[in-house]
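Run: sequence + glutamine -> complex structure.
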Amino acid sequence: MMHYIVVTGGVISGLGKGTITSGLSYLLKNSGFRVTNIKIDPYINYDAGTMNPYQHGEVFVLNDGGEVDLDLGNYERFLDTALTSANNITTGKIYKEVIEKERRGDYLGSTVQIIPHITNEIKARIRKAAEGYDIALIEVGGTVGDIESMPFLEALRQMRSDKGDSMIFGHVTLVPESGSEQKTKPTQHSVKELRAIGIQPDILFCRSSRPLGIDARKKISLFTDVAGKGIISVYDVSNVYFVPMVLEKQGALEYTRELFKFDDHELNYTLREFTRNIEKPTEEVTVGLIGKYVDMQDAYISHKEAFSHVTGNTGIKVNIKWIDSDDLIKSTEQLDDLDGILIPGGFGYRGVEGKIAAAKYAREKRIPYLGICLGFQASVIELSRNLLKLKDANSTEFDPGTQDPVIDILPEQRGIKDLGGTMRLGAKTVLIKKGTIAYEINGSERISERHRHRYEVNPEYIERLEEKGAIFSGTDDEKIRMEILELNDRDNYIATQYHAEFQSRPLNPSKVHLYFIKKSLEYRKEKRGSIYAGSTE
Ligand code: GLN
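>> structure
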């Protein structure tokens, strides 16, 4: 028997469905079950590869090169596992497959319809992704009532009566406050909507600022036919890693086990010390994140999470100052009070000159520096312009006619027209030079890290850059290419072509993020002599 927990959302978007799904997954996995997660994104896009971070936040990258919704990042972090592209199902993937089957004649002349052809394809994909696990948690993107999610909800509804599948339906709703009263009406309406499409929820995850009062709880239970035990109050917490604890305290794990008729399993709660460090840090640093989507912080969620992982393991609180890179073109004043500078990945010319200015500032002022992907490339451009005196040095991504293309398109990328799924994507081996910082922190000459780029350091400039103090590590995967940049006159500067943030996990933080924060703390202490002893408030 395969066990599925479906998590839908109602009332408004952005209630933290992904975190609730991840938190419950964590509890079940740490109770000894084999657990996986599936995200359904009802949009027509084939995957998240071509999506603008302004709308959906960061594009997360998997080992297999899948460019997926950022919720897959949450699942990986909470489950401490690597997922595959099959764990993200979109309308685009379903329709593409069904239309291809129709063209091949697989449907033997029948009229191809949403029910049963699309719904059957959805069910088949869900079952395939769940193979080999005890429980699969399926999160349905969007809010119930959206036209786009209807075929998915219909497929999931059908699964309740399909043999071999045991289903639990969880629904995330909002309980707002008016005065001091918790209002249940939006939840009632949202459940009504779900029931109208034939789904009676078993569990309601009620989001509210404070824990749900007894009156609200009773009322919701009465109007929705969800048992009292199934009303789970998910009140606001300051950090996502508190969510499993809230869910456990509110009885979500116990009730899930009861509904599935599972025997008692002992929970091995591994995040106790981690959350204690987040709650009561002993030190703090302020680092600048230089980006062009800084008012959409979800665009950089994996960096934010990687810093939480550092805090959870070290007790060093990381304050992120979100800095719009375009502002730095006029003045770098905003960088003056920082303990460290992070330049994350990005695409397109807008914002790049500000990032180059920040990389220069970090090098000249000897501030701890971490450059990732585009940040790595910005460093190489900066070194070329200012140390090699190649004033026109640039990436051909931004200036195709530059005199000095120090960053150039990967040879195998030439002539590629499609944008989706065509970059150098996913896990690749990185070779690390002995004696480098990268070697010191990884303790190995070979690591596997995730990638997402179309451009690289032009090999013709490497020797000249090395003469000026650059130290490169690379890879011989496909061809020699540069992966890590350090400077020979300091130990607080590291930039990587790979995205270490995608593999950062609560109990195993990204090595470069951890190192960067430790160096930022050293720098802060040297500069200010201050030691932090405050609370997280
Ligand atoms: N735009 C750059 C490239 O394609 C950097 C990509 C990134 O930062 N993810 O190589």
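>> summary
The first strand starts at residue 2 and ends at 9. The two ends are 46 Å apart (CA to CA).
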